[in-house]
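Handout for the seminar on molecular recognition.
Each group receives one record of this type.
Step one: identify the two inputs.
Step two: read the structure output and locate the region that could contact glutamic acid.
Step three: write two sentences on what you found, then compare them with the reference statements printed after the record.
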Amino acid sequence: MTIHEKAMAKEPTFRESVDLMFNRAVALMDLPPGLEEKIRVCNATYTVRFGVRLRGQITTFTGYRSVHSDHMEPVKGGIRFATGVNQDEVEALAALMTYKCALVEAPFGGSKGGLCLDPREYDEAEMELITRRFAYELAKRDMINPAQNVPAPDMGTGEREMAWIADQYARMNTTDINAKACVTGKPLNSGGISGRVEATGRGVQYALKEFFRHPEDVKKAGMSGTLEGKRIVVQGLGNVGYHAAKFLHEEDGAVIVGIIERDGGLWADEGLNIDAVHDWIMRHGGVAGFPEGTHIDQGALLFEDECDILIPAAIEGVINLTNADKIKAKLIIEAANGPVTYGADEILRKKGVVIIPDMYANAGGVTVSYFEWVKNLSHIRFGRMQRRQEEARHQLVVDELDRIVAAVPGNMSLSPGFKDKYLRGADELELVRSGLDDTMRIAYQSMREVWHERPEVEDLRVAAYLVAIDRVAASYRAKGL
Ligand code: GLU
């Protein structure tokens, strides 16, 4: 056994880690006996094994859909395609979905699914066959259903898979007028919503912006000022990591000094060009050979380098007992689900590192999924009715301002660009971003209130659990349970 394996042997599983974090929070609550367990445990996990004829022979696949809590329906959560998928993992992820939805007030219970396969091993036609068959297996048991269980993308899946799932469900339910709402994260032409692809990364950006609006919190993390010039290391330049890094650099002036990928890491003190690195990964499958910055074979070592903010944006358990004490970042924002293990969390807390927890940090995805689901049920694009009316009313104000400005002696005029900006009514993308920004701000404020007002609450993770569990408990109580 290597040192790493020995240390890892001491770590709880992902699901146990989530449960232990849950326990830390409920210890500070006064829940009626039994309710605590009812909320913690996973309601049901469905395992399905199905065969698909590929390349002349039948290949058997194993998939899961776990429902952690159906205190609200539909239940919500992504479907992951990865070789590491297992029951423990989907149950941990389903539990996080329950708390995540409660925290950002998305009216859903928590669920998650997974299919054990490496999507890179199959071509598009094969992936379609496999995905449709998995969708069929889930839909026939109402585990894909607009009113009961609404999947979404996760690791290894995206718009393409969601379009196949939506179509598969529609074929099986030809008279369901709400069929499109059976899954979110669809392409725009199949009932998707603008801004869903960038949503999780955008949410990470909005979360950090909100954090930096509170100097007291920034101080707790041993920093000051704004995001401008802050040095960031991102692990995983997939959909979430890429968008978060891109927006934080382009819009907030943060410097992405390090990127950790499967095949190694990149470092550049002056900052990396995110689009160029992302392009390179898309074309070459990894960061090796990228012409700028320094390449490091053992990418994970960059976790231990000097930076202000660390953004783990790939898989669970990457910050664990083997590296937690070597981490120098002052702030960790969990863009992935469960990137910090229970043990590592304890070490980091003692070191004074502030962690913005996953259930909040990556909730942008499900928040915009909620908007997409509502759009599908209402059968109309956001803004379609109001946009031109809004523009007409703004035109009235601009005309009036023009009239007043012209009447005032002197050379007054409206500032350049004002008219264009003010006159334009909001389109769907702007409305989605506004709804997401508002959600991320409000959810952060609800967490920080608990964090600051209750001395026994040491960290944002416990604060997040307290807010979420309280809401789930209230919902159970309202049902008379
Ligand atoms: N898979 C994403 C998550 O972990 C999105 C879930 C959803 O949109 O339902 O939050």
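Reference statements: Residues 428-453 form the longest helix (26 residues). The mean pLDDT is 96.
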